[in-house]
């Protein structure tokens, strides 16, 4: 993976950007990406993320993690190996919960990179970090489901190869809180699906596109439900564990790339009578960046190991923690690298400005920091609340035993 990145992917970044700028469709696949995918697949560097069944390369989360970091050193890296979002999460959903028919129709073409997919969950009218707020309705009508609602930042929907939308909506608003939502498989060309606009991210237009999408009386067969009605929330939780590890390790790759660029820059530039690398503040930036990256990497590897050994649910606190820590660290290191580059850091002459935008945006995507911090705090406090409840129970038991003993002694004295 390291050799492939250095020999093929990193040198192709400028070609990729040029081909994308020259294309009539800003969302079309640049020819160089198709070439890179073909080479990666021939090398066996393909579907490395898939840790379920026999669908992928047979790696565990812990084994895949350092490979995700290497791919993350380039913005185009994960796609080269068919390991990019949102397809990775969608493929995991289909591998874990799809019917054989759903897997044959959607999963196999995704694994072969014959098609792309998108995931429609976030809505513009509500705080979608709380899935209970989702308003998009999925209504049963005979042998079909009818979808009405509006989603945005539906990443990937503008890719010409997008053929599948996995949508989260409400099938029963009156059901118990976490049984109201369901996931539905919607072919991209289904009538009633309208992309209203392509949303930028800090001014950048992403090749996959972030669609603002309207669903008006969109009809799909009932067999397109994923796992069953009311399973949407549980499926979303299952999808997010490995996905957050992928995000986090790619963020380590972002940070390593930024640190490399910063070190190269400060050794080449001089100011105030000497190399920038001799300035105390610059050395502190470099030292703190190295320390923070090493700490982050170990935390993510621990999380990956826990997912492999005790499962996603038991690793919930660590998975939430890495989502916060990874993007905070990556953004901080990128920010220092931008500062070290001066005017070049905010231009498009380096990848830093794009990394700055991505690392900031990802602190909102896939759940904002505050939601994950809430999870970590709740899990941590639960340990102490459980201990306090045990202490209280034991104290009450001791007081009860003391009271019973006193009653027995009083009866004995009276006798």
Question: Summed up, what is this model?
Answer:
The chain is α+β, with helices and mostly antiparallel strands and 415 residues long.
Notes on the protein architecture:
It is built from 11 helices and 9 strands. The protein is an alpha+beta fold. The protein folds into 3 domains: 1-98, Orthogonal Bundle (Butyryl-Coa Dehydrogenase, subunit A, domain 1); 116-226, Butyryl-CoA Dehydrogenase, subunit A, domain 2 (Beta Barrel), CATH 2.40.110.10; 233-383, Up-down Bundle (Butyryl-CoA Dehydrogenase, subunit A, domain 3), CATH 1.20.140.10. The strands form 3 sheets. It has a 4-stranded antiparallel beta sheet with strand order 2-3-7-6, with no helix packed on it. Strands 1-4-5 form a 3-stranded mixed beta sheet. Helix 7 (232-268) packs parallel to helix 9.
Structural descriptors:
415 residues; alpha+beta; Butyryl-Coa Dehydrogenase, subunit A, domain 1; Butyryl-CoA Dehydrogenase, subunit A, domain 2; Butyryl-CoA Dehydrogenase, subunit A, domain 3; 3 domains; 53% helix; FAD; Acyl-CoA_dehydrogenase; flavoprotein; AcylCo_DH/oxidase_C
């Amino acid at each position: 993976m390291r050799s492939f990145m250095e020999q093929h992917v990193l040198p192709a970044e400028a070609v990729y950007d040029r081909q994308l700028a020259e294309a009539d469709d800003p969302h079309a696949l640049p020819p160089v990406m198709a070439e890179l995918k073909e080479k990666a697949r021939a090398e066996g560097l393909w579907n490395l993320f898939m840790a379920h069944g026999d669908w992928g390369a047979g790696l565990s989360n812990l084994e895949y993690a350092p490979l995700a970091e290497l791919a993350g050193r380039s913005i185009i890296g994960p796609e080269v190996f068919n390991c990019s979002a949102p397809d990775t999460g969608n493929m995991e959903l289909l591998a874990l919960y799809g019917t054989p028919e759903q897997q044959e129709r959607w999963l196999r073409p995704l694994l072969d990179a014959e098609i792309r997919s998108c995931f429609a969950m976030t809505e513009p009218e509500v705080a979608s970090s709380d899935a209970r707020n989702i308003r998009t309705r999925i209504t049963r009508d005979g042998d079909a489901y009818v979808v009405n609602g509006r989603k945005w930042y539906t990443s990937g929907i503008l890719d010409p190869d997008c053929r599948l939308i996995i949508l989260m909506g409400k099938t029963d608003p009156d059901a118990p809180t976490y049984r109201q939502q369901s996931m539905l498989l919607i072919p991209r060309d289904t009538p009633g699906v309208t992309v209203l606009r392509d949303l930028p991210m800090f001014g950048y237009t992403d090749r996959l596109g972030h669609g603002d999408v309207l669903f008006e009386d969109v009809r799909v067969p009932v067999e397109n439900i994923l796992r069953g009605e009311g399973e949407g929330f549980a499926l979303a939780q299952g999808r997010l564990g490995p996905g957050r590890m992928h995000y986090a390790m790619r963020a380590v790759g972002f940070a390593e790339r930024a640190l490399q660029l910063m070190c190269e820059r400060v050794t080449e530039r001089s100011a105030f009578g000497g190399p920038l690398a001799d300035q105390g503040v610059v050395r502190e930036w470099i030292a703190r960046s190295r320390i923070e990256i090493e700490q982050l990497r170990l935390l993510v590897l621990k999380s990956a190991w826990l997912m492999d050994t005790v499962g996603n649910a038991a690793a919930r606190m660590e998975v939430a923690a890495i989502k916060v820590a990874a993007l905070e660290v990556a953004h901080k290191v990128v920010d220092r690298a931008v500062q070290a580059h001066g005017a070049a850091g905010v231009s498009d002459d380096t990848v830093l400005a794009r990394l700055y935008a991505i690392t900031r945006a990802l602190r909102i995507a896939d759940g904002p920091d505050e939601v994950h911090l809430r999870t970590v705090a709740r899990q941590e406090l639960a340990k102490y609340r459980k201990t306090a409840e045990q202490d209280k129970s034991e104290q009450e038991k001791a007081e009860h035993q003391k009271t019973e003993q006193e009653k027995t002694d009083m009866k004995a004295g009276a006798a």
